[in-house]
Amino acid sequence: MSRELERRRILAKLPPLEAVLRGSVIVRVLRCGKPGCHCAEGEGHPATYLSVTHAGGRTEQISLPAELVPLARRGVGAYRAWWAAVEKLSALNRDQLRAQRRPPAALRRRSTGRSPRRPRRPG
Predict the structure, then answer these.
(1) Helix, strand or coil for residue 107?
(2) How far apart (Å, rounded) are the C-alpha atoms in residues 100 and 23?
(3) Tens digits of residue pLDDT in 51-107
(4) Element (H, E) at 29
(5) CA 36 to each of CA 30, 41, 42, 45, 103: distance values in angstroms, whole numbers, following the listed order
(6) Which helix (H) or strand (E) holds 27?
(7) Distance CA 109, CA 115 (A)
(8) pLDDT tier at 38, thresholds 50, 70, 90
(9) Cα–Cα dist 76/91, whole Å
(10) Helices 69-101, 3-12: crossing angle, 10 deg rounding
(11) Are 26 and 46 in contact (CB under 8 A)?
């Protein structure tokens, strides 16, 4: 398959860019601290968040109600799909760049394994 066809195939599979959401959907188990609550001895209260780490290491966590969890998961999936496509396209472009830098075989000079001598400067 040609590089151009491969590029088009990669781009055609991408979700809409406006759906992209960077981060991770995480579920944490919390304990409310009430002595009579089931979480004091058994399983806690599940809480779902979108966790995003920003430049400088600051982490933001956004609490997600149950109805927004599927939307957040789709958005994170879209982000990962775009990121994977960027990596694939970059690899194709590197291959193309490598191919373009090589002169045709007929124009290549045979290397003797040593550098050509340069004339000495007077001096």
Answers:
(1) helix
(2) 37
(3) 999 999 999 999 999 999 999 999 999 999 999 999 999 999 998 898 888 666 656
(4) strand 24-30
(5) 15, 9, 11, 14, 78
(6) strand 24-30
(7) 13
(8) confident
(9) 23
(10) 170
(11) no
Joined together, the tokens standing for residue 43 give: 């399983």
Annotate 30-81 with DSSP letters as a single string: E----TTSGGGTS--EEEEEEEEEPGGG-EEEEEE-GGGHHHHHHHHHHHHH
CA atoms within 13 A on the CB side of 87: 6
Provide the token pair at 6. 């491969």
**Residue-level pLDDT at 68:** 97
Q: What are phi and psi of 63, to 5 degrees?
A: -70, 135
Q: Where are the domains of the chain?
A: 3-101
- Is 25 within 8 Å of 52 (Cβ atoms)? no
